[in-house]
Amino acid sequence: MTSLPLVFDAPRRGRPPTHFADLDQAARVAALGELGLPKFRADQLARQYYGRLNGDVEEMTDLPAGARAKVGEALFPKLLAPVRHVSCDDGSTRKTLWRLHDGTLLESVLMRYTDRNTLCISSQAGCGMACPFCATGQGGLDRNLSTGEIVDQVRSAARALRDGEFGPEGRLSNIVFMGMGEPLANYKRVVSAVRQITSPAPEGLGISARSVTVSTVGLAPSIRRLADEGLAVTLAVSLHTPDDELRDTLVPVNNRWSVSEVLDAARYYADTTGRRVSIEYALIRDVNDQPWRADMLGQKLHKALGSRVHVNLIPLNPTPGSEWDASPKPVEREFVRRVQAHGVSCTVRDTRGQEIAAACGQLAAEETAG
């Protein structure tokens, strides 16, 4: 079976400007020193950015007015400019299309639930994993996002919720790296962003690591590396089928790391972190929804992970021009029943935003085509 090309090194469409969130403490102090400012200003700026969610130096009123312009230019360049917001689900879901400094487009989705507020963020502009049923994969990879571009998606959403820009005032509680891109293909920047998202203020945004999910199509060595970072975030593996023959086509990275290798890495993650692993499975009509595949999935997951795994079945959100569609509800219910029969937790994910092109990459594709 012919495999699709894989792209792991992002082409540099345009290097993002250096941002405060891209620098460690020493680099921040050094940058301020070059501007003639004392090192205590680094902590002051951190409290403004992470604690008060201010990204514009003109709002940082404890910074001398005469210093704001040069600090803004050096450390707080505008990273994300909203192109448009699109809402649905009675206003509880809002998708934002962002334009970066070089014209690159990316997306994030903010979802309000009764018990939490979740933000789905992007780690790359586009994606090089080439999964044929994914709008982002169909569009290819533009480039990796910088740490600052990742973190600023979160800061912007947290501020929007706090200020009531998106319904009643609220607090951002959950982050999922399930937007555009393969997070583990942008490993160092994603890990740096996760540390800033989860560190308490003023070092970070203070979101619990247990409320952060990092998704991957199965870069096995990077899964093991992530396990050793001491972050204890939730790992989500986009498996989509339990057999190598079909997965070689649905998830071309399987040509490098087979299902068994991915599940071995997932077991290492569970053993090392003590966290349950999430398995993502987009259910596609007549492609991967057969009863025997449900049985194989349940068997393999139970053997590899026991009770430390949960399957999220995702009704496929068809992309324009796609030959595939979501499985019928009776097929979906039977698939869940069979996986559960093997002692594996399995539920169907709540789908949001279908009428606003909420599948990753759809809004960006529409903007580009338009």
Automatic annotation (TrEMBL):
InterPro entries the UniProt entry points to: Aldolase_TIM, Methyltransferase_A, RNA_MTrfase_RlmN, rRNA_lsu_MTrfase_RlmN/Cfr, rSAM, rSAM_sf
GO molecular function: 4 iron, 4 sulfur cluster binding; metal ion binding; rRNA (adenine(2503)-C2-)-methyltransferase activity; rRNA binding; tRNA (adenine(37)-C2)-methyltransferase activity; tRNA binding
Record's keyword annotation contains Transmembrane: no
Gene Ontology process terms (BP): rRNA base methylation; tRNA methylation
Note on cofactor: Binds 1 [4Fe-4S] cluster. The cluster is coordinated with 3 cysteines and an exchangeable S-adenosyl-L-methionine.
Sites where the protein binds [4Fe-4S] cluster: 127, 131, 134
Record localization: Cytoplasm
SUPFAM superfamilies noted in UniProt: Radical SAM enzymes
Residues the entry annotates as binding S-adenosyl-L-methionine: 181-182, 215, 238-240, 317
Keywords linked to the UniProt accession: 4Fe-4S, Cytoplasm, Disulfide bond, Iron, Iron-sulfur, Metal-binding, Methyltransferase, rRNA processing, S-adenosyl-L-methionine, Transferase, tRNA processing
GO cellular component terms attached to this protein's record: cytoplasm
Cofactor names: [4Fe-4S] cluster
Listed EC numbers: 2.1.1.192
Domain Radical SAM core: 113-355
Active site: 107 (proton acceptor), 360 (s-methylcysteine intermediate)
PANTHER family linked to this entry: 23S RRNA METHYLTRANSFERASE, RADICAL SAM CORE DOMAIN-CONTAINING PROTEIN
Family of the protein in this entry: Belongs to the radical SAM superfamily. RlmN family.
Note: Reaction proceeds by a ping-pong mechanism involving intermediate methylation of a conserved cysteine residue.
Protein name stated in the entry: Probable dual-specificity RNA methyltransferase RlmN
